[in-house]
């Protein structure tokens, strides 16, 4: 058994590893070894959790080894487990390899029973404190280990508080506490049919087992799935000697960060409560004091804490989230970990730490979550409207700015309602007195979170920051009647305002302000700087953002292009740093009101002449779009896909629309209906689309290549460098591509001669049909580039469509058939294998084959890692995801090193 002891300057494990000892255990060992005061304890490694899960029970030799190791803790503390004379009390704490805040439950004060209780009273002379500790122990043990609902205990507690006129828990007198304890024990007896376990060894065994078991509780599973934490890790168990923050006014407990987790500001930051134990700060029941006030209350402790937090930050070279307890003037550290932070804070901290020479730029790149960047680019509330709201006193209240960003939404007071509302396509904003781990799903579905209680380290604040959601906590003017579906606010001017479920509210997580109604938003500093509207140096956020993008560009190998169909999209893409267009879907150019009728005319044509006439009318529109696209992307490649969707998508459906069209273009309604019904397909995804259109209607392809090359020639005349890449969609057979290519080349030659112009154009294909991937060596003969259309390739490889998979895919993900949504993240072993085969075969036929990916996965960091590994030349994604892709491409290189 590899149980590890830590404490009094010692860690038995010289190299405490997180995967083996869990995050908490490994950091407790490290702190002990650094000479930082931690209460001595032992760590049961995660291997034992896996062992437990395989067997379904604890291995028989486990508890004897635990008792053996516990002797070291007894030695280190001078106390004895299960012994009335100076009894050793312990906490039993879970600790997974990846921090999962609030996911698994801790039991405090374990080891108390009638005998040890007496011993403790004799020792401390403080009966109230000991009884309160016992009461808490029964409650936590009853809830976590025995499965008796938390609220049953709370009801008993509240009943007795009311009876004895106690406001705070600490107001309860020993007699009342004894009554509570009796009621608690009766509750346990009734709920489980067994008396509350009095044998400390039995308590310990049951608690250890409960922690292992809690790895598989619903909340933990949900959190792991959300964050892609492997199921196989398991949790460690930490059994640690207790220290008490509830031993009067020279004791307390607190949580702090070495820098501000919300803004990233380099300033020690935190909160504490005097005379409180354990989770009181995080639970948000009492609103805590700011850490600066500790300097006044306990100057020595404060100085020591300052020293330790600096030591920890320089040791870990990262912002730390620290838990501490003070017992009668003596400081103990109970936990440290890399602190969760908002995207804004992660950006600032990473850049600051490079300036401070704590880390290098490469490390900084790995510290910023690529997926968090869109939140930084997200709009903020319009400052003029905010000012107006302020001067018109439309600010309802102000709380703590726990998670920055602007959120508007419909108020909901219960998590289940948030989930229901989101399912209906409306955006909820979750408003609660405080949140608990049961609210995770509701928070996930809300645009923002507002709570009445709690500080910057409360559950709501921590989780919201992890989710990158705007969040305001500790808004004490707010009273939420969760069961009754309304909330009341008394504004600063003393106005009473009621918010009903479904009313619109807005919160500004950067200022902490709460507004009634929906607020207008404007672009963030970064966006404005990217468009050149402000100088990046004028805003730290924009400056740091540009810095990080620059570092990323220096490191990455993959080029990043954008999917853009309009000149506007192309301009956005350029401002975000796109190096070309990877996919321009030409069909989107046909949907404008002045164009669609010609497109429809083309489809409804009875003869080739009629069709060509309609196409002639479309040509100038298309040519103009391309010209502007080339201009926006001057010097960069622009990949243009020939018409792809089935033609019936362009025809009207309702009687009204049909009548209107018939009028407009002088075709009978019957004919429209007839044509629509012939074009109707039972399986459009596999129907008459892609290159099949260009092959059956060559005049469409001819018109498109004309538009592209005429535009290119015009741009050339204006001295703009153009690199059009003409892409044939949905090729599965070599012959399909060669037919289209022949057509394209004949037309191109004629046109370039006509214009007397040289254009450097390429012809290539999308690889999105499995047959194309498997015969890529033949296809590459005619293709100078491949672009993997991962949306279709995924549908066709997996055999289910993205739009119809929702009902079973959710179940598949739950069962782990697929670990991730294969439409969001490339399915490496299936679709990824198609890509590998196509690359290998394609390059064997044409060594200079250019390869890229277009489709949603081109902007997904996990997929980008794969695309980097297999050696694609570029990824293409939506314009707003270009910065994500730039950073993720750099991270992919760093991860592979
Ligand atoms: P979480 O994983 O939710 O952070 P912890 O294991 O850190 O749970 O326990 C929650 C809280 O319980 C801690 O923040 C600390 O205040 C308290 N606690 C845990 N162990 C001890 C201990 N040995 N002595 C005193 N308080 C403890
Ligand atoms: Mg903790
Ligand atoms: Mg496609």
TrEMBL record:
Limits of the PEP-utilising enzyme C-terminal domain: 545-892
Cofactor: Mg(2+)
Swiss-Prot/TrEMBL catalytic activity: pyruvate + phosphate + ATP = phosphoenolpyruvate + AMP + diphosphate + H(+)
Residues engaged in binding substrate: 585, 641, 768, 789-792
Residue ranges annotated for the Pyruvate phosphate dikinase AMP/ATP-binding domain, each copy included: 62-292, 303-357
Residues annotated to bind Mg(2+): 768, 792
UniProtKB keywords: ATP-binding, Kinase, Magnesium, Metal-binding, Nucleotide-binding, Pyruvate, Transferase
EC number: 2.7.9.1
Keyword rRNA-binding: no
GO MF, one example: ATP binding
Family designation: Belongs to the PEP-utilizing enzyme family.
Function: Catalyzes the reversible phosphorylation of pyruvate and phosphate.
The protein's name: Pyruvate, phosphate dikinase
Organism: Leptonema illini DSM 21528
């Amino acid at each position: 058994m590899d149980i590890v002891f830590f404490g009094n300057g010692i860690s038995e494990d010289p190299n405490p590893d997180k995967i083996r000892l869990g995050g908490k255990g490994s950091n407790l060992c490290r702190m002990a070894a650094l000479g930082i005061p931690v209460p001595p304890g032992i760590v049961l490694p995660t291997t034992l959790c896996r062992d437990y899960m395989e067997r379904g029970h604890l291995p028989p030799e486990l508890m004897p080894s635990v008792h053996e190791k516990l002797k070291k803790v007894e030695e280190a503390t001078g106390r004895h487990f299960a012994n009335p004379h100076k009894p050793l009390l312990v906490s039993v704490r879970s600790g997974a390899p990846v921090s999962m805040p609030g996911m698994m439950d801790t039991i405090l004060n374990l080891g108390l029973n009638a005998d040890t209780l007496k011993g403790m009273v004799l020792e401390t002379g403080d009966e109230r404190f000991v009884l309160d500790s016992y009461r808490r122990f029964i409650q936590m043990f009853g809830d976590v280990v025995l499965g008796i609902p938390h609220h049953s205990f709370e009801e008993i507690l509240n009943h007795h508080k009311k009876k004895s006129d106690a406001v705070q828990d600490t107001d309860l007198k020993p007699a009342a506490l004894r009554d509570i304890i009796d009621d608690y024990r009766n509750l346990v007896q009734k709920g489980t049919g067994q008396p509350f376990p009095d044998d400390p060894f039995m308590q310990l065994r049951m608690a250890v087992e409960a922690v292992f078991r809690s790895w598989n509780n619903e909340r933990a599973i949900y959190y792991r799935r959300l964050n892609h934490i492997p199921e196989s890790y398991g949790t460690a168990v930490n059994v640690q000697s207790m220290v008490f923050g509830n031993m009067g006014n020279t004791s307390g407990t607190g949580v702090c960060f070495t820098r501000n987790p919300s803004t990233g500001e380099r300033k020690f930051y935190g909160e504490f409560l005097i005379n409180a134990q354990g989770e009181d700060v995080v639970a948000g029941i009492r609103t805590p004091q700011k850490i600066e006030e500790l300097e006044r209350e306990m100057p020595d402790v404060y100085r020591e804490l300052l020293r330790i937090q600096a030591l920890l930050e320089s040791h870990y070279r990262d912002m730390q989230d620290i838990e501490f307890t003070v017992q009668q003037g003596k400081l103990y550290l109970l936990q440290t970990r890399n602190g969760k932070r908002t995207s804004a804070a992660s950006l600032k901290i990473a850049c600051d730490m490079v300036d401070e020479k704590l880390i290098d730029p490469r490390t900084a790149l790995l510290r910023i979550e690529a997926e968090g960047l869109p939140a930084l680019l997200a709009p903020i509330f319009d400052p003029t409207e905010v000012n107006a709201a302020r001067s018109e006193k439309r600010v309802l209240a102000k709380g703590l700015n726990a998670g920055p960003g602007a959120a508007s939404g419909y108020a909901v007071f219960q998590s289940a309602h948030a989930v229901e509302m989101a399912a209906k396509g409306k955006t909820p904003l979750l408003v609660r007195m405080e949140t608990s781990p049961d609210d995770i799903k509701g928070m996930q579905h809300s645009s923002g979170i507002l709570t009445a209680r709690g500080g910057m380290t409360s559950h709501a604040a921590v989780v919201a920051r992890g989710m990158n959601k705007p969040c305001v906590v500790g808004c004490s003017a707010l009273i939420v009647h969760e069961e009754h579906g309304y909330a009341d606010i008394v504004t600063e001017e003393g106005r009473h305002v009621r918010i009903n479920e479904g009313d619109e509210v807005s919160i500004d997580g950067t200022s902490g302000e709460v507004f009634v109604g929906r607020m207008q938003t404007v672009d963030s500093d970064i966006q404005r700087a990217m468009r050149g509207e402000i100088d990046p140096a004028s805003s730290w956020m924009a400056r740091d953002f540009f810095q990080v993008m620059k570092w990323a560009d220096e490191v990455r190998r993959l080029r990043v292009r954008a999917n853009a169909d309009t000149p506007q999209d192309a301009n956005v893409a350029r401002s975000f740093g796109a190096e070309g267009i990877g996919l321009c879907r030409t069909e989107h150019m046909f949907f404008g009101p002045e164009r669609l009728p010609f497109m429809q005319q083309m489809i409804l044509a009875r003869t080739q002449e009629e069709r060509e006439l309609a196409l002639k009318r479309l040509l100038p529109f298309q040519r103009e779009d391309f010209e502007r696209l080339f201009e926006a992307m001057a010097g960069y490649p622009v990949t243009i896909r020939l018409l792809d969707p089935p033609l019936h998508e362009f025809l009207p459906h309702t009687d009204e629309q049909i009548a209107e069209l018939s009028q407009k273009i002088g075709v009978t309604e019957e004919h429209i209906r007839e044509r629509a019904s012939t074009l109707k397909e039972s399986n459009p995804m596999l129907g008459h689309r892609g290159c099949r259109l260009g092959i059956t209607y060559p005049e469409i392809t001819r018109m498109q290549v004309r538009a592209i090359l005429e535009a290119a020639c015009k741009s050339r005349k204006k001295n703009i460098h153009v690199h059009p890449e003409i892409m044939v969609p949905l090729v599965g057979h070599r012959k399909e591509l060669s037919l289209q290519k022949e057509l394209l080349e004949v037309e191109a030659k004629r046109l370039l001669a006509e214009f007397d112009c040289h254009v450097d154009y390429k012809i290539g294909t999308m690889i999105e049909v499995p047959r194309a991937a498997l015969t890529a060596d033949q296809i590459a003969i005619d293709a100078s580039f491949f672009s993997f259309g991962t949306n279709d390739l995924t549908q066709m490889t997996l055999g289910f469509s993205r739009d119809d998979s929702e009902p079973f895919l959710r179940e598949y993900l739950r069962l782990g058939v697929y670990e991730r949504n294969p439409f969001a993240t490339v399915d490496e072993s299936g679709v990824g294998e198609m890509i590998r085969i196509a690359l290998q075969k394609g390059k064997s036929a044409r060594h200079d084959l250019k390869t890229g990916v277009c489709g949603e996965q081109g902007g997904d960091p996990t997929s980008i890692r794969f695309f980097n590994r297999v050696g694609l030349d570029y990824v293409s994604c939506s314009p707003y995801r270009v910065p994500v892709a730039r950073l993720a491409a750099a991270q992919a290189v760093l991860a592979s090193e």
